[in-house]
Every structure is written in C-alpha cells, then in structure tokens.
Amino acid sequence: HCDLSEYNIMVCPCRLVENSLSDPSDQDDNALQVVLIDFGQAVNVHHPDAKKLLQRDLTRIKEFFEKMSAIATMSIDVAEAFVTMNDDEETAVGNEDVSRKPLENEQ
C-alpha cells in the first residue's frame, strides 16, 4: 500500500514508460499509461490494514479518473487483483490479461 491519491499519479504517453507488459513498437503514439509515484507512505503487505488501505486508495483513483469522464478505468476488483500479484506468471483477471501471480498471503 502507498498513498494513491491523485497527487501521486501521472498519466503520460506509453512510449515514455518502461513497461515489460507491452512492446514499444506496437504502441500508438497517442496511447497513455498511468504511472504511480511517491511511495514514501507505503505500508507492508502484512500490515493489518493493508487491504483496507489499498481498497480505499484504488476507489479514490477510480473516482478521480471517473470525474474526468474521458478516461476509462478498470473495476476495483480487477485493479486490486492486478496490484496484489507478482511478476512471475501470466494470469487472467476478469477480462484483462495481466502478467503477474497472486502473492502467497493474498491467496
């Protein structure tokens, strides 16, 4: 968990973000990607309130981008599944493919 308020989120062109999930040559020049910054307030995944804090922050992010109405967001369940996975294996979450595996303590 970290402070996932709108002040710690950047939206930038995909071509400027190092991302192992996509091939830069396949990206549209206008495609955007969310980048999270400032993890100074992060809590350990074993913290008793980690799940509650993560859900709160994911909800805030979704609400912030929905207010802008031009930006589509994934569901809270899909977002939570995505951010609580490791990079080891490919897994399908909802209708979205993510290249990550659930953490042991989240299974």
From TrEMBL:
One of its GO terms (molecular function) is protein serine/threonine kinase activity. Gene3D superfamilies: Transferase(Phosphotransferase) domain 1. Residues 33-71 form the RIO-type domain. InterPro entries: Kinase-like_dom_sf (IPR011009), RIO-type_Ser/Thr_kinase (IPR051272), RIO_dom (IPR018934). It catalyses: L-seryl-[protein] + ATP = O-phospho-L-seryl-[protein] + ADP + H(+); L-threonyl-[protein] + ATP = O-phospho-L-threonyl-[protein] + ADP + H(+). Keywords: ATP-binding, Kinase, Nucleotide-binding, Serine/threonine-protein kinase, Transferase. Its EC number is 2.7.11.1. PANTHER family: SERINE/THREONINE-PROTEIN KINASE RIO1. This is non-specific serine/threonine protein kinase.
